[in-house]
Design brief:
Blueprint (H helix, E strand, L loop, with lengths): L2 E6 L10 H20 L3 E8 L4 H10 L3 H18 L6 E4 L3 H16 L3 E11 L4 E2 L5 E4 L8 E2 L16 E5 L8 E10 L5 H9 L7 H13 L4 E2 L1 E2 L13 H5 L3 E2 L1 H4 L3 H11 L8 H4 L6 E8 L3 H14 L9 E5 L2 E3 L2 E2 L10 H7 L2 H10 L7 E3 L1 H31 L11 H22 L3 H22 L1 H7 L1 H21 L5 H9 L13 H6 L21 H11 L5
Parallel strand pairs: 1-2, 1-13, 2-3, 13-14, 15-17
Antiparallel strand pairs: 4-5, 4-9, 6-7, 6-8, 9-10, 11-12, 15-16
Helix pairs in contact: 2-3, 4-9, 5-6, 5-11, 6-11, 14-16, 14-18, 15-16, 16-18, 17-18, 18-19
Length: about 575
């Protein structure tokens, strides 16, 4: 089987993420990783907190903590939420790790050796009030392109255009709010992306027709506008230090690398963190170095991260002239909105992941978010839509099927799977239908089409309900007890099949469905077409129990309570 390397865009350290962040990178990566593991592939799913840069320093200052202590606490808090969502990372690292420092500095030295880094004197914003140069995110103001009045000096959150602090209209210090700003000369390192443009263009072109349109179109847009040389150092106290053996003057001034230079390198850094925990059995380079034909690398991210992963980081990788693995497939997502408006961490608008887990278990959120993933366009979260989806798909279609089959069988046949007669025409039709629907589900998962995969999974669940309605064992038992037993045994085998194939979406509920049957040596990780047709994985005589309610229906009172707490429309 193939080896699959999976990464999701690193969540930034300053605060718990909202549902849009979850569905835009980490959750679909987890669903895909779980699916591939079930199909027998060797999978390594790597992620980490992105800990450097201005916002980390500002957040630490606001909390009255040293930035290193703030980041350590925030990392643990984020990891706890991701554990709550059952994200099965192989490793969740930190971009402030010694491993990332080592690899980032190595990359910088190689770029220097190869003529792709240049030291330049630049004019930079200086705040006399704060007594320091202000890196890009320490400067806020009005975006010259869209007029957004809270744009940062590196990028406008509203229109996503990359900016320079000197581009901003009416700039102010993010530290003190002072508008008494000057422009002074200082030195920084620049990555000469302009010299790498043709190589990046050729590399991106090789993925035309392979990457989703969203990822390709953003990459080509940036390349059409032209790659500009970019400063990759900042005046900050917290970051990967510029190595003194290569740039002694800048190191003495305390320059650190720009967060967007070191953050993508943390994919490698986190893999080395993972490897260093068990060096006798793990080799991080076996996933990253000279492995183009051995490893398939898939990245997951929201659309605002696409330029950095499809243009800027590839330019870095190309410029070091070493055979590090580059991404094969970029799965990019549009925005999940809140009642049509933007989720906002800074403005605390929308539902945040820790709050979501306070309300309902993770599987409710996992299924809803993936079933409504913003793939082809933006999608909107509303409490009405969420409640309707939970009630129809999870409570009625899956949960009710499981409960009524097992409860009715226990009541009429006891606590073992009944035997009944031989399968007939209805069971043959059902088996063919299940095999066909399973193939569709597999095809959509392989294609990373998550909404379509969710629809195929929902169709699998619906097929069981249709079969149950057709056979009506509650009526059948009055005239044909063996026939009713056969119907229930077939339905129980469907429950086991659902437990196996639903695991990427609803892992906790899938485990509960599987535990319902006391099957010795039940190690099934997937279902073959023949197994889907025969539906005999759970034989007659197998003891079973009726699990607690898998998904509770949400009431009108629940809906009103959610809207009252979080708001029922975008701000």
């Amino acid at each position: 089987m193939a080896r699959h390397l999976i990464t999701s865009a690193l969540p930034y350290i300053n605060g718990i993420k909202h549902l849009g962040n979850m569905v835009g990178s980490m959750l679909p990566a987890d669903v895909y990783a779980r699916y591939l593991r079930q199909r027998g592939h060797d999978v390594l799913y790597i992620c980490a907190t992105d800990e450097h840069g201005t916002p980390a320093e500002l957040a630490a200052k606001e909390r009255g903590l040293p930035v290193a202590e703030f980041c350590a606490q925030a990392h643990d808090a984020q990891k706890a939420v991701y554990d709550g969502f059952a994200l099965a990372f192989d490793y969740f690292g930190r971009s402030s790790s010694p491993q990332n420092v080592e690899i980032t500095q190595h990359f910088a030295r190689k770029l220097q050796e190869n003529g792709f880094i240049e030291e330049r004197a630049i004019r930079q914003v200086y705040s006399p009030t704060d007594g320091r140069f202000l890196p890009d995110r320490y400067v806020e103001g009005t975006c010259p392109h869209c007029g957004y009045d809270k744009a940062r000096g590196d990028q406008c959150e509203n229109c996503t255009r990359v900016l320079d602090p000197t581009d901003l209209i009416e700039p102010r210090s993010a530290i003190s709010g002072s508008t008494d700003l000057e422009v002074r000369e200082t030195k920084h390192l620049f990555l000469l992306q302009s010299k790498l443009q043709s190589e990046v263009m050729e590399w991106v072109a090789r993925h035309d027709g392979v990457w989703p349109h969203l990822a390709s179109s953003i990459a080509h847009k940036w390349l059409t506008e032209g790659l500009h040389d970019r400063a990759i150092t900042r005046d900050l106290d917290w970051g990967v230090p510029v190595p003194a053996d290569t740039w002694p003057e800048l190191a003495a001034e305390g320059k650190v690398f720009y967060v967007w230079f070191d953050a993508p390198i943390e994919y490698l850094g986190a893999t080395k963190e993972w490897s260093d925990l068990d060096p006798e059995n793990r080799d991080w380079k076996s996933w990253w170095y000279e492995v183009d034909d051995q490893v398939r690398y898939t990245q997951f991210m929201a659309k605002d991260n696409v330029p950095f992963h499809t243009v800027m980081f590839p330019a870095t990788e190309l410029g070091i002239r070493e055979p590090w693995k580059k991404v094969d497939f970029v799965k990019a997502f549009n925005w999940l909105t809140y009642y049509g408006g933007k989720f906002s961490t800074s403005q605390k608008r929308g539902v945040f992941t820790d709050q979501a887990l306070e309300i309902l278990p993770a599987d409710y959120w996992r299924y809803f978010l993936i079933a409504n993933a913003p793939e082809s366009d933006d999608s909107s979260f509303t409490w009405e839509h969420f409640t309707a989806t939970v009630n129809k798909d999870l409570a009625d279609t899956l949960g009710n099927f499981v409960n009524r089959v097992l409860s009715f069988s226990k009541k009429r046949f006891g606590e073992e799977v009944p035997a009944g007669g031989r399968p007939g025409e209805a069971e043959t039709r059902l088996g063919e239908q299940i095999a066909e629907l399973l193939a569709e589900y597999e095809a959509q998962m392989e294609a990373l089409q998550f909404r379509k995969a969710a629809a195929a999974l929902r169709a699998l669940w619906s097929a069981g309900n249709s079969y149950l309605e057709e056979k009506a064992p509650w009526l059948e038992i009055k005239t044909d007890k063996d026939g009713a037993a056969l119907t229930l045994r077939t339905a129980m085998n469907l429950i086991h099949l659902y437990a196996v194939v639903s695991e990427p979406f609803v892992p906790s509920v899938s485990a509960a469905m599987r535990r319902a049957f006391a099957l010795d040596g039940d190690t099934a990780t997937w279902v073959t077409p023949d197994e889907a047709r025969s539906l005999t994985a759970v034989p007659a005589g197998t003891p079973f129990t009726v699990p607690p309610v898998l998904f509770a229906k949400l009431t009108d009172d629940d809906l009103e309570a959610y809207k009252e707490r979080f708001g029922g429309e975008a701000a």
